[in-house]
Amino acid sequence: MNHTPDTDDQLRRSLGIGRRRFLSTCTAVAAGAIAAPVLGASPVQAAPRSAGAGRGHALVPADKRGIILYTVRDAIGRDPLTTSLPSGFRAVFEQLARFGYRQVEFAGYGQHANAPGGASLESVQGAKLLRRWLDDNGLRAQGNHGFIPGSWPFTSADLDTFKKHLEIANILGLAHMGTGGDPTGSAYKADWDVAADKWHALGAIARRAGLKLYTHNHDAAYGFLLDGGPLDDQGRPTRSSGIRKLEYFLSITDPQLVWLEMDVFWAHVAQYKFRTYTAHDGSTQTNVFDPAGLVTRNNKRYPLFHAKDGVVNTTNGMGYDMVPFGTGVIDYTTFFSRVGHRNYHNPMVEQDNAPSTTNPGQSLEHAAIGYRNLAALRR
């Protein structure tokens, strides 16, 4: 990480923390940036994220640098009457804009009751407030992890709620509306077929409202589809042809109705976890997942990314521990170079574990680190 005295002091003062604690936080974060191989089809060494800043062109243009607000959910949810730290949507928007962000992705519309606007802004009036605060700070909202009906066929109540969220999305100026979950948690083809029918129906409603409907996926969606071989005692297949669940979903859904958001961290976890499968004939086959390859084969299906980083940990079952963006070993320079279309994709910095119980300013500190490292990516 590159720091200058002026920018560090501005950040420290805006967060209301002492210089000693700010420097110790940055030192601890930098210590996580170990040079270790990315676990996958093409092992590489992660380059220092500040290296090359000012050379070449930015892999993520300035107007495409975003953050999902889940990263700073503690700041949005804390009581502004009990702290000098930024609290609630309006103050957090102001702080994120100071860091340089130009885009945000919502993870719901709730905040602390004492913040301007009150506890819930999940309404037409609340959306108008949020839109005004976004505009005041030069921010654009790109998406939201919001309501997707669980029932299929849909109930009238679920459809009404879904349409309310579409109305809120249009007020906010969203181009996309989605969810933080997979279309189904099943490993079976028949269930993914049902999920495709459901998402086609929702996608058509969203399209009529001028929005693209997207699903955000975790590692499980990249596991192998069970689609053949001997049946179990419930009549379900037990072996695979080697097709990954989400690849199948992509192949059977209409690209004009259903889009996706790749969480690059979880895609790399899947690369670590799901390397072999049992074929229909009972043999063990190897197939290492290539996240960037999936995107390049379905490029216009991926308008959004979660840019989340990790360091190698082969003892936790995932292969990685989450760290602030740009301080880990996931090679984002190569990833963004391979997927291209830099004026189409919208990467959102995310760190699930950014909030801290001992350092209330940590999530915003890590948001600042994430912005600097996203902006430093060059080709």
From TrEMBL:
Membrane spanning stretches: 21-40
UniProt keywords, alphabetically: Membrane, Transmembrane, Transmembrane helix
Organism: Streptomyces bingchenggensis (strain BCW-1)
Ranges where the Xylose isomerase-like TIM barrel domain occurs: 93-350
Database matches in Pfam families: AP_endonuc_2
Protein name: Xylose isomerase-like TIM barrel domain-containing protein
Chain segments annotated as coiled-coil in the UniProt record: none
